[in-house]
């Protein structure tokens, strides 16, 4: 079986279609780095010695701090929980650095990741309720959301949200990662790394204004508490935003994120942190379907009635201590609370040209406790240098969900499409339909060995996971309760091998499995069966020594069993799809070509097919075969008359998709253009050093494409323009 899957990958790489697309892209990307490669090769020849390989370093959040000045990250701890050079990591990882986030002016997580290979956003059109993200054809919105190495979990409806301004970087680990993280989508995870204290003094304030009266102010302060003492560090980040987006959808957010680090000595580090966030947007952003079934350019709900209010708080700590003898202990602990209230209108029927709408209400509360204990050991066995990681983690979640709706439509909510008028008001329905109480406990024991033998890099890991779930569903009208429980255990594994040539070329292969105790409910209220995943990868990375360039090409074969699919986005009802197989190729380049010129390019080809269950042979909904993007950013240098000016432009393409797993209708392909412009006033006069103005434009052509997904359709977001002024000192 495994041999056949590897044979398929070889055929996939050799196929004429893939090569036609891949060869052009790879030739371009490798040509961009040709000069740097030639220089390094020449230097190596002149010195008469091979390039010295960088050692593996373990230092908590160090990778983020060292990568903030480039778009081509050098290291990541997300794939192994060990701070490892990306070019030496035998699996696919994409990193969006702080520099890239700022260059593109990312305002939410979907904007942050959408220029990365294998990543798809916009599967629900413009939907500001959640950060809807797919990786390699798999929805990671609910099962792949991580922050600082701990999952931001989902149970019934509510989801945690993270603002990019609170982050140092975003790491996208592709494929199953259950060995280190337990529950997770087979497609991978999106790990968001928070801004935490650093020894560098940070002082930043900013104001922001954009489309639909979107006003925002933000600040970021940090550094040593005392000028002459770097053992105590602090950081506090905050943001306040008020305004709307397209279609009068609210986009309000307020957050505060303080943190404090105490380094009692060189071997011990303790960081405590907290965050509180309030977000308000709209609950039903779907498009209205007319009496003939056609999609109308109207929202189904009403902006004056509709809201989705979320309050979330998180508090935790990160502890690290290095013992004598090559041992390091780390503990990452967090408690999270989430409270969501929403209400909306939806069309229940038609009287001529009048939509008869009814009201719905949702309430959801969730408490989460998580702790991850890690013991790391470094030792040698003959020529092999080992970095061994042992871990024990525990997660406990409790959730209370309530759902209510009006028994009949109300004339006050009627909407005449021949005379569209918004601005209705009315009461919030009682939670009169169903109440769901759910809990989940997960315990995991894992081990990972990262081995270095000359130019070879190997990883081998395994994990045993035990999960206990329960759900109590009460139908309010009949006062009847059904109970469902699930106790499961599973073993997950991963293995990888990579060979690092002196010139920076690193071919690799990997294998990994996943086990995901999903919390999604079926229409009957029962818990869906756990999802399982298996992936093979074969690829090559290229990082010319001494450059800020990282290129990668990879082919993969990914299978998911018991895939959960959202069938009702308004109530959060899911169904198991059966088995889905994704086979594809990804190309990615993150490069600083010359002084001031950054390029981020990505291409993804994914053949997705339902291989077992209902609709076998079909393609899953909203799963494109081709995705491509290119971003280029240039800062004029000091010897230029335009010094201080930075210009950027990008293009994003997503191929056509099916609107449902039945494959009876399609969504059109989309192309979007983005642009950015900023000016550093310090280039004119040093007294203005640190003052920067910027303008970002998303969707320049104002294309508004409707996306339909399993019977629900969503209007696309139009042109969005934002301007900001920041001062750093």
UniProtKB/TrEMBL annotation:
TonB-dependent receptor plug domain: residues covered: 86-189
PROSITE patterns: TONB_DEPENDENT_REC_3 (PS52016)
Subcellular localization: Cell outer membrane
A GO term for molecular function: siderophore uptake transmembrane transporter activity
A GO CC annotation given for this chain: cell outer membrane
GO BP terms in the entry: siderophore transport
Alphabetical list of SUPFAM superfamilies matching this protein: Porins
Cited CDD domains: ligand_gated_channel
Major place of residence: membrane
Sequence similarity: Belongs to the TonB-dependent receptor family.
UniProt protein name: Iron complex outermembrane recepter protein
Lineage, highest ranks first: Bacteria, Pseudomonadati, Pseudomonadota, Alphaproteobacteria, Hyphomicrobiales
